From TrEMBL:
Signal peptide per UniProt: 1-28
InterPro entries documented for this protein: AB_hydrolase_fold (IPR029058), Peptidase_S10 (IPR001563)
Protein name: Serine carboxypeptidase-like 18
UniProt similarity note: Belongs to the peptidase S10 family.
Keywords: Carboxypeptidase, Hydrolase, Protease, Signal
Keyword Lipid biosynthesis belongs to the record: no
Length: 451
């Protein structure tokens, strides 16, 4: 533990120097308050701000963001930095498809500029949320230096920490608000890394001090090997593979299904058989095994186009980019919702140690996990929580919305007073599948009420 903490602390030193230099200089940024948007009739019923924040020694990385002020009590409601996954998926994904106040009106979409409807379960009803396009190259974020596009887990954590500290310098009225990092999928891996950067910065005396209270993660990538390893027992629990096949895998591979010993021919055979079985079940949508697979049927493929293509049509429109304040000529390629071509290195294999350190420091964690997600199974999330050796405060039980079971929950406590709340329900991006239930979950957790 001490070696890990020392390594992280030493790695932070150059970051501290950069941040001190950054804070001593004028915070260069550009932002716009948006009152109307193409696709929405009339004035927006919430406050939307967009803008760029420059990070890096020469501010060569220009990170674009959407900020929506709480529709409740912005002076008291918490501030959330929302990070989408991928890596490389725009914050627009979270804003329109998951937790933001706007949804596309799919019933009227005909391929032209799409229209919006309001999301009655937007998290912005109880929190102010920054949706960030990160890493650079995502969404409308850009850099003028080609080497700037080479990002990694550790660089991204530093970038987002710098971004948020500068954003707060430009928005001092939010300095006292409770602050939470949040994200799902790969963004759920980055959230604790950014939280740790903030905690270290606060301890080093960086200004402004940030009122970090914890973080919120959904179906979060945590350990590169363990997350994949638990797909096998998950497939068995969900009746995707039979008892016989599961017993063959367990006995042949000794419960280790990632990077097996190549000399273990029996395990190699069992894993090949498992992969063939999974291929045979590619009718299953791995992000929600009860939903149709969009790539299987042409009718369903069109449904996928109808659901997701409106974001391309909308964000690439000239009138939209003008309304958002997008700098002309800053993107060499057209906007994409998820940039899969970025030069990104996953250099943190596991964030378990960060979870442990942050939990010991007293931060609160909400870890929700769609129990129908095959990509990052809920078993994986439960296992890393159990590896922290915490005490069960509230044993496994259902949690309900409007009298109906929304999922199951368990709460764990650390001796220092911090808690981890675990909750199941829905698929890989849970708010996309169960918006009402996830809104209730967040509201109760932020209010310190049991789920």
């Amino acid at each position: 533990m001490s070696n890990t903490t020392g390594t992280i602390s030493m790695a932070l030193l150059p970051v501290v120097l950069v941040l001190l230099h950054m804070i001593s200089a004028a915070a260069a940024s550009e932002s716009y308050v948006i009152e109307t948007l193409p696709g929405y009739p009339g004035l927006l019923p919430f406050k939307l701000e967009t803008g760029y924040i420059g990070v890096g020694e020469d501010e060569d990385l220009q990170l674009f963001y959407y900020f929506i002020e709480s529709e409740g009590d912005p002076e008291k409601d918490p501030l959330i930095l929302w990070m989408n996954g991928g890596p490389g998926c725009s914050g627009f994904t979270g804003l329109v498809y998951e937790i933001g106040p706007l949804n596309f009106n799919l019933s009227s979409y005909d391929g032209s500029l799409p229209s919006f409807i309001l999301n009655p379960y937007s998290w912005t009803k109880i929190a102010s949320i920054i949706f960030i396009d990160s890493p650079v190259g995502t969404g409308f974020s850009y850099t003028n230096s080609p080497e700037g596009y080479y990002r990694s887990d550790t660089k991204l954590a530093v970038d987002n920490h710098m971004f948020l500290r500068k954003w707060l310098l430009n928005h001092p009225s939010f300095l006292e608000n409770r602050l939470y990092m949040a994200g799902d999928s790969y963004g759920g891996k980055i959230a604790p890394l950014v939280a740790f950067e903030i905690a270290q910065g606060n301890e080093a005396g960086l200004q402004p001090w940030m009122n970090l209270k914890g973080y919120i993660i959904g179906n979060a990538f945590t350990d590169a090997d363990r997350d994949v390893n638990y797909r096998v027992p998950y497939a068995h629990r969900m009746a995707i593979i039979s008892d016989d096949y599961y017993e063959l895998l367990k006995t042949s591979c000794n419960n280790e299904y990632v990077n097996p010993d190549p000399s273990n021919l029996q395990c190699t055979y069992a894993l090949r058989l498992f992969k063939e079985l999974v291929q045979c079940t590619q009718n299953i949508w791995d992000q929600h095994i009860l939903e149709p697979n969009f790539s299987y049927d042409q009718t369903i493929l069109w449904l996928q186009v109808k659901i997701y293509w409106p974001s391309f049509t909308w964000a690439r429109d000239d009138s939209v980019q003008e309304a958002l304040g997008i700098r002309k000529g800053t993107k060499e390629e057209e906007w994409v919702r998820c940039n899969r071509s970025s030069a990104y290195t996953s250099d943190v294999r596991s964030v378990l140690e960060y979870h442990k350190l942050l939990n010991e420091k007293g931060y609160q964690i909400l870890a929700y996990s769609g129990d129908h997600d095959f990509g990052v199974p809920y078993i994986s999330t439960l296992k890393w929580i159990h590896r922290l050796n915490l005490t069960i405060e509230d044993a496994w039980r259902p949690w309900r919305v409007d009298g109906q079971i929304a999922g199951y929950t368990e709460k764990y406590k650390e001796g220092g007073g911090s808690f981890i709340t675990f909750a199941t329900g829905a698929g890989h991006t849970a708010p996309e599948y169960m918006p009402k239930q996830c809104f209730a979950m967040l509201k109760r957790w932020l209010s310190m009420f049991p789920l």
